[in-house]
Specification:
Blueprint (H helix, E strand, L loop, with lengths): L1 H6 L16 H19 L7 H12 L7 H14 L3 H4 L21 H9 L16 H20 L12 H16 L6 H10 L13 H31 L7 H11 L5 H4 L15 H21 L5 E2 L6 H15 L10 E7 L22 E4 L2 E3 L2 E3 L2 E3 L7 E3 L3 E7 L8 E2 L7 H7 L1 E6 L9 E7 L26 H7 L3 E3 L4
Parallel strand pairs: 1-3, 10-12
Antiparallel strand pairs: 2-8, 3-8, 4-7, 4-12, 5-6, 8-9, 10-11
Helix pairs in contact: 2-3, 3-4, 8-10, 8-11, 9-10, 10-13, 10-14
Length: about 500
């Protein structure tokens, strides 16, 4: 277990959101506790408690280093899977029967036989032993390549010019005047967009005399977008003036020139003055960031001038959690006659059949907006495939799969009379579904951390992965090792939904 969690870090966010410094002291402290626990049990002072062992190892010893909640879930999943009496009760217990190499607990007593078995280990571990999909190795190699390229860009000399060539500053100035500034969308005028907001049609079932939650959200998004747009325009103006010698060339301007020259996004466009609060969206290149700026403006402008779109591009919002909460508020108000309240409903998501390709807010196919709730699109599934409304093992070298449109609605948790009720009239039991479905996390970026957490979505697992080898004959390739449930399988694979692939 120590080896697995230590090596899993190399897969980046797909392995652990944070690369924790697990070390030998964590292993020794855990072994000391287990040894004492077993000794007390052998003396009759206490009994072996596997629940206590899992808690001490996963939550206290190693868990003391873990700061991300989803990483804590991952570690506890390993603990519940492998810190078990099955390791002793089953002869030649295997930690993963799907791996090409049989990682077993050898039933031998002599040290030379242990060393012989250890020497037979493969030089390169398959991602399968970590519980990951084989494509995870491709993710690891790509991350290595990107890190090397970033290092080369950081260390490359940036001085140019001489022999009649343009200097770095002159190239950046030409880039701003002839390209970047012309791509910027129009400003949102406060007086105009507030008038248009008040004129937007009121959804069915809502009181037009009260504030409409999604209209309030739209105003906040426009204000945040305009803030970013003002910063970008001012930065470009200051750069040109500084290069022309009309204002002082500060260290911040120098760094911004270097970023644009390297086709990177200036930090002042991403973070506030403290450097800790995100003010826009994070992308690896300047070109993709500017494309995101244009696409976000397109969605906000269309919503403001043409009314609500049939489906919302979730990635195009600064505050995705705020959008989902506003939608939940509207659904609650539409069901006021049924005594729905915001603290007694739960967000509910239903993947549809349609998939909208592309990474922007444009919708090219005819889609009907739901009578209650909203549709969202633009999500990507990592770590698995999606087919016929279920999670399936991914194949080939496709790291991300475009996810279908999702209906965002709500469920009342009030169990009086008819029990939990779905917003569109269907009965549903969220507790029963949660027991069998995979609780998939939705992240804002592939970086995967609590900071970029959006929501969680229950997804139906592949029916062929029943959890015990041999239980589903005829689908042997998809059968899970003994003791591994579908929920554990998808958790170890790091399956998540992402708002963007970059």
């Amino acid at each position: 277990m120590h080896s697995i969690v230590y090596e899993r870090r190399k897969f980046g966010p797909l392995g652990f959101s944070v690369a924790y410094e697990f070390n030998q002291s964590d292993l020794e402290a855990s072994l000391t506790y287990i040894e004492n626990h077993m000794n007390y049990a052998s003396l009759g002072i206490s009994v072996i408690s596997w629940k206590a062992i899992v808690y001490m190892v996963c939550e206290i010893q190693y868990g003391g280093r873990i700061t991300d909640n989803l990483d804590r879930e991952m570690f506890s999943t390993y603990g519940n899977l492998w810190l078990t009496p099955k390791v002793f009760d089953e002869p030649n217990y295997s930690f993963n029967t799907l791996s090409d190499f049989a990682y077993v607990v050898p039933d031998v007593q002599e040290m030379p036989k242990y060393m012989e078995y250890i020497s037979s280990f493969p030089d390169k571990d398959s991602p399968v032993i970590f519980g990951l999909n084989p494509t995870a190795d491709l993710t690891y190699r790509l991350n290595e390549s990107r890190a090397m390229i970033d290092t080369l860009i950081d260390t490359a000399p940036k001085d140019s010019g001489g022999s009649g060539g343009k200097s770095k500053e002159e190239e950046v100035k030409d880039q701003i005047l002839n390209n970047l500034s012309k791509q910027l969308p129009e400003n949102f005028v406060e007086v105009e967009y507030k008038e248009k907001l008040s004129a937007l049609p009121t959804p069915k079932g809502l009181d037009p005399k009260k504030n409409i939650p999604l209209n309030i959200f739209l105003r906040q998004e426009i204000e945040q977008f305009q803030l970013v747009l003002d910063i970008v325009r001012k930065t470009m103006t200051d750069l040109v003036l500084a290069i022309d010698g009309q204002i002082i060339m500060t260290q911040q301007i120098v760094e911004t020139i270097n970023n644009i020259y390297d086709i990177r996004v200036p930090k002042t466009w991403l973070l506030d003055a403290t450097g800790s609060v995100e003010i826009s969206w994070i992308t690896p290149t300047l070109g993709s960031w500017l494309k995101g700026l244009i696409d976000r403006h397109y969605q906000l402008h269309n919503w403001l001038n043409k009314g609500r779109p049939p489906s919302f591009w979730l990635t195009g919002f600064y505050n995705q959690q705020g959008f989902l909460t506003a939608a939940q508020q509207e659904i609650t108000r539409q069901n006021a006659e049924s005594n729905w309240s915001l603290d007694s409903v739960k967000q509910w998501y239903e993947p549809q059949k349609e998939v909208i390709q592309g990474e922007d807010g444009r919708i090219e196919k005819a889609i009907t907006a739901p009578a209650e709730g909203v549709l969202i699109h633009g999500l990507y599934l990592e770590g698995a495939a999606w087919s016929k409304g279920r999670l399936e093992e991914s194949s080939g070298k496709e790291l991300f799969q475009a996810f279908p449109i999702v209906l965002v609605t709500a469920i009342s948790l009030n169990t009086d009379n008819a029990g939990p009720r779905h917003a569109v009239g269907k009965k549903a039991d969220p507790l029963a579904l949660a027991a069998n479905y995979y609780d998939c996390v939705v992240y804002k970026y592939p970086k995967r951390s609590d900071k970029y957490f959006v929501t969680r979505m229950l997804l139906k697992p592949d029916s062929s992965t029943q959890g015990e080898k041999g239980k589903n004959a005829g689908a042997q390739d998809n059968v899970l090792p003994v003791g591994m449930t579908p929920k554990i399988n998808w958790k170890l694979k790091g399956v998540a939904l992402l708002c963007t692939k970059e």
